[in-house]
Amino acid sequence: MSPKKECNLPSYDEKSNPYKGLKIYEAADAGRFYGRDGVKTALLEKIKSQKLTIVLGGSGTGKSSLLSAGVLPEMHDYEVLFMCPQQQPMEAMMQIRH
């Protein structure tokens, strides 16, 4: 490709772009969140078959996005407590419940 030629690329539209970079996908992004269907399905099966499910993983691996945009939109008939790590996790969980 010659540097003098112009590329006719579509303009960038942040609202229609499915990639958020390092930003967390939220429930409103469920329609744009894809590529993790196997993990999402397995996690939903675990959640629905046991009383407590904890999702652990390294920083930046997509845990919050998986839960917010993948799992939570499917949890219509369940009580969901969503919290991030804290100094006192049990106290934080009790505050969420009340």
Structural write-up:
- The protein has 3 helices and no strands.
- It has 98 residues and is an all-alpha fold.
- α1 packs across α2 (63-71).
- The longest helix is centred in the middle third of the chain and has 13 residues, at 37-49.
- The chain starts with 36 loop residues before the first helix and ends with a helix.
Helix content: 25-40%
Average pLDDT figure: 81
Report the principal-axis shape: elongated
> Radius of gyration from the CA trace?
18 Å
Order of helices and strands: HHH
Biggest β-sheet: count, sense, barrel? none
Share in β-strands:
under 5%
Distance between the termini: 62 Å
> Number of DSSP helices?
3
User: How many β-strand runs?
Assistant: 0
Low confidence ranges = none
Structural class: mainly alpha
Short description:
This protein has 98 residues and is mostly helical.
